[in-house]
Design brief:
The complex is a heterodimer. Chain A is α/β, with parallel strands linked by helices. Chain A contains 14 helices and seven strands. Chain B has helices at residues 16-19, 35-58, 83-91, 112-134, 143-156, and strands at residues 6-15, 63-68, 73-79, 95-96, 99-109. Chain B is α+β, with helices and mostly antiparallel strands. In chain B, 46% of the residues lie in helices and 22% in strands. Classes of the chains: A alpha/beta, B alpha+beta.
Chain lengths: 378, 160
């Protein structure tokens, strides 16, 4: 199951030919509709991605400097409705906020704007100054309805503008955020058009060289653990299959198993964690109350910290003696433990449909791989 | 015994114009690609991305063994110790002779046997995809059958 978490989508103007209107945010308050030609282009790219083997794709809308409730338009909802449904592929919505000097005072990722940010599945921040980088790593990776899940880095700028400090990076990874490497920079094509208008990326031969230097630095500082690799590709011919990308990562001094994880395991746990944003402080499972038939009043013992449900505490205390009932123990707020999200049972999370689709996609791929194996051994 | 070990890369060049339905240019039926062009493009890619030392590491053992214009399938042989450099160079290829392509490595193996099996299976898949596009039934004999037979023979004729 392979993930491409950066499929750039721009508001008005097709994604493959950079044209008019890139600098302005769409001013109209109604949703921006996509013309049939743009839809055709997007469908074609999705076909290509499917052919290359990607099953989970996140559409990425980029915003400059800050999100403003007055001018921000969620273009991805309209897009998703217009695309035909593909079995075996999961679509997600992602918002990227480019942070620079002006955003140091605050860029709208506050409780007041939580409703703006809610429809997106994944949030990413792209810092360009040291101050915003430390902001992104420290304050915004803590679990809350507003966390940023991905810290994307501008890898093609000459001389990465800030030094990747080991302590910051380690805190971010411990909190569960991941760092993103966009492989479009290595291929050298015109990278994400919206990024270049925001002045964040550099194309051509020097962009490629900077990409190798910066990506290598990211791998070194993170020691390969909290990395995801994604597309960020503007023109179609720059897409590459997942195995090829894993090989490119090994050329960055990343071990083979970690390179494989970067495109399979890390994005998966990232998406699970992103679902935790919709819950309170990354608690994923709900306590399930089981009431057995016999009701004997037993002296209340302080077991669960829930004082409102006292009677149920008595009853359930008895049941927990009879059979080990793990459902009652309230899970600890998994603030800094991102791994608990993986082990938690998937059935009681908010986004059931996404989980089901991920499981279906995994099953479908497992089956097709098995079928292919059967056909090849003659 | 110190044997000289190889890696066989099975590469498919995905043509963006056939996958992208909205492109206006037509894919010419006689593709100008052939093994020699691929070798040259690969050599340029290694030199620009990995320098002269990269080419020195890879060049002696790099060999394009087979190329099929209809399915865009290519078999490349490299020495095992440097196959990652060659693989990287293949990935970073963007165009051959002004045609933009997407190289995709389907299979990597140490012996020619499994490469052959994988190549034959891939040819069959591609032909099946062509046939569904033309909406022919499976029993309908068309020129693809000859092509399949011929390419299978060519692939099996490959040797070390």
């Amino acid at each position: 199951m392979h993930f491409d978490l950066n499929f750039p989508v721009t508001a008005s103007g097709s994604t493959s030919q950079p044209k008019k209107n890139k600098n302005k945010q769409p001013q109209q308050s109604s949703q921006a509709a996509f013309t049939p030609a743009q839809i055709k282009g997007i469908e074609a790219r999705l076909d290509l991605l499917e052919h290359l083997g990607y099953t989970v794709i996140a559409f990425n809308q980029s915003v400059n400097k800050k999100i403003d409730p007055k001018t921000h338009v969620n273009i991805l909802d309209g897009l998703l409705q217009q695309l035909r449904a593909r079995p075996g592929t999961v679509f997600l919505k992602r918002l990227t906020i480019v942070l620079d000097n002006d955003s140091e005072k605050g860029f709208g990722l506050t409780n007041a704007n939580a409703s703006l940010v809610e429809p997106y599945d994944v949030i990413a921040l792209l810092p360009t100054t040291p101050a915003t980088f430390s902001l992104a790593c420290l304050t915004h990776s803590l679990p809350s309805p507003l966390t940023a899940h991905i810290v994307a880095l501008p890898l093609t700028l000459p001389r990465l503008p800030f030094q990747l400090k080991h302590t910051l990076v380690r805190t971010a990874i411990k909190n569960g955020a991941v760092f993103e490497i966009n492989y479009a920079g290595a291929i050298g094509g015109e990278s994400d058009a919206s990024l270049s208008t925001f002045g964040v990326s550099d194309t051509g031969a020097s962009g490629k060289r900077n990409w190798w230097a910066a990506a290598r630095e990211v791998v070194r500082v993170t020691k390969g653990k909290g990395i995801i690799v994604s597309g960020g590709v503007a023109s179609e011919a720059d897409y590459r299959g997942p195995k090829d990308i894993a090989n490119l990562l090994t050329l960055l001094d990343l071990a083979q198993n970690l390179a494989h994880d970067a495109s399979v395991a890390a994005p998966k746990s990232l998406i699970l964690r992103a679902q935790a944003r919709k819950t309170y402080r990354a608690v994923l499972s709900e306590p399930r109350l089981v009431i057995p038939e016999t009701t004997q009043v037993v002296a209340p013992i302080q077991q669960t910290g829930d004082s409102e449900k006292r009677d149920n505490v008595n009853i359930s205390e008895k049941s927990s003696r009879s059979s080990p009932n793990p459902a009652l123990t309230l899970p600890q707020p998994a603030g800094s433990k991102k791994r608990t999200c993986d082990e938690v049972s998937l059935e009681s999370t908010a986004n059931r449909h996404v989980n089901k689709k991920i499981r279906e996609a995994a099953n479908a791929e497992g089956q097709s791989r098995r079928k292919k194996k059967k056909g090849g051994n003659r | 015994m110190v044997r000289f070990k190889n890696r066989w890369l099975l590469v498919e060049f995905v043509d963006t114009s056939t996958v992208d339905a909205s492109a206006e240019r037509e894919s010419s039926s006689t593709r100008p690609l052939d093994g020699r062009l691929i070798y040259n493009a690969l050599r340029d890619s290694v030199v620009t991305n990995f320098g002269d030392t990269g080419w020195g590491a890879v060049g002696m053992s790099l060999n394009v063994k087979y190329f099929s214009p209809l399915t865009n399938l290519c078999i490349i042989r490299v020495a095992r110790d440097q196959h990652r450099i060659a693989w990287g160079a293949v990935t970073l290829l963007t165009s051959i002779h002004d045609i933009r392509i997407i190289p995709r490595v389907i299979h990597v193996s140490g012996t020619i046997k499994h490469t052959q099996l994988s190549a034959i299976a891939h040819n069959r898949e591609v032909i099946a995809r062509f046939r569904t596009k033309l909406k022919n039934t499976a029993l309908h004999h068309d020129s693809y059958d000859d092509y399949l037979a011929r390419s299978t023979r060519e692939i099996e004729a490959l040797h070390d």
